[in-house]
Amino acid sequence: PELCRCCARWRSFALAMADVAERFLASVESIGALRKVPAGRLADAEVDAFNDLRSCLIVARKDVSALDGHAVDDMCHVLDFIMRRSQKKASVGRARECLGIVLCSDSWLHAAQSNTDLLSSLKELLAGNPEI
Q1: Which of 16, 52, 115, 117 has the fewest CB atoms below 10 angstroms from its CB?
Q2: Are the C-beta atoms of 24 and 60 separated by less than 8 Å?
Q3: pTM greater than the 0.85 cutoff
């Protein structure tokens, strides 16, 4: 039997969200792997990892449940990575955008609140953004 348009769209959306969750997991893992990248290649690897993370988050904005299921340490590491990217003048807006998406997830918000240094840095960066 053929699916109606509504069901076909829903199925397509569900498959896309599953793909986003997998891509997001891979992105979190690649950010963790940055610790092992040689210093000479670190800058390029960080740019690539941030761009990949951001593309996943933009899609995940529609369903933040795609961000769930990560260890608190991994979430804090990703949040710290986003914070470091926000120190780059060209990336501050995109970093705030990423933070706005991940902090919509209760688990990510709790992870941020579990680390006092990270929390104070987040508060400082996001002080002028009442929507976050």
Answers
A1: 117
A2: yes
A3: no
